[in-house]
Specification:
The chain is mainly beta. It has a single domain, classed as Beta Barrel (Lipocalin). The protein is 6% helix and 47% strand. The chain has one helix and seven strands, in the order αβββββββ. It has one helix at residues 5-11; strands spanning 38-44, 49-56, 61-69, 72-79, 83-91, 97-104, 110-118. A seven-stranded antiparallel beta sheet has the order 1-2-3-4-5-6-7, with helices on one face. A hairpin with a 3-residue loop joins strand 4 (72-79) and strand 5 (83-91). The chain starts with a helix and ends in a 5-residue tail after the last strand.
Length: 123
């Protein structure tokens, strides 16, 4: 299994028994607030392949597959008759993780629908 050194370095909690997590409160000016959450379970093999399952608060489940290379982790998630998407996580300067979520368009291009930046905060 490959250690996700960048995520662990950025997000590892102070107490070793706790699992790392990301938390956000996205909002769009002028839009009503939306309650939404999602969780995913991943396994990373020795070659850097990622496999898992993503579940959201609306009951949607997506298989995910991707990879890890250096400071980048990516996953593709899909149900071909609904949507195909990808999420990319990049550890940048200042230990900030940038997460970009996109969906595949009919013309083969990707349309980003969310870009979030995370940094560790001490509780």
């Amino acid at each position: 299994m490959i250690a996700l050194w960048w995520a662990a370095a950025l997000l590892a909690p102070a107490a070793p028994a706790e699992a790392p997590s990301l938390a956000s409160r996205p909002s769009i000016a002028g839009a009503p607030s939306v309650r939404y959450s999602a969780a995913a379970n991943y396994a990373v093999d020795a070659t850097g392949r990622v496999r898992g399952k993503w579940i959201d608060s609306h009951g949607r489940t997506r298989p995910v597959a991707g990879g890890v290379s250096g400071a980048t982790w990516w996953t593709h998630w899909d149900i071909a008759d609904v949507e195909i998407g990808r999420s990319t996580y990049v550890l940048g300067e200042g230990r900030i993780v940038t997460v970009s979520d996109s969906v595949l368009q009919d013309d083969g291009s990707w349309r980003a629908f969310a870009v979030l930046r995370y940094r560790r905060t001490n509780r």
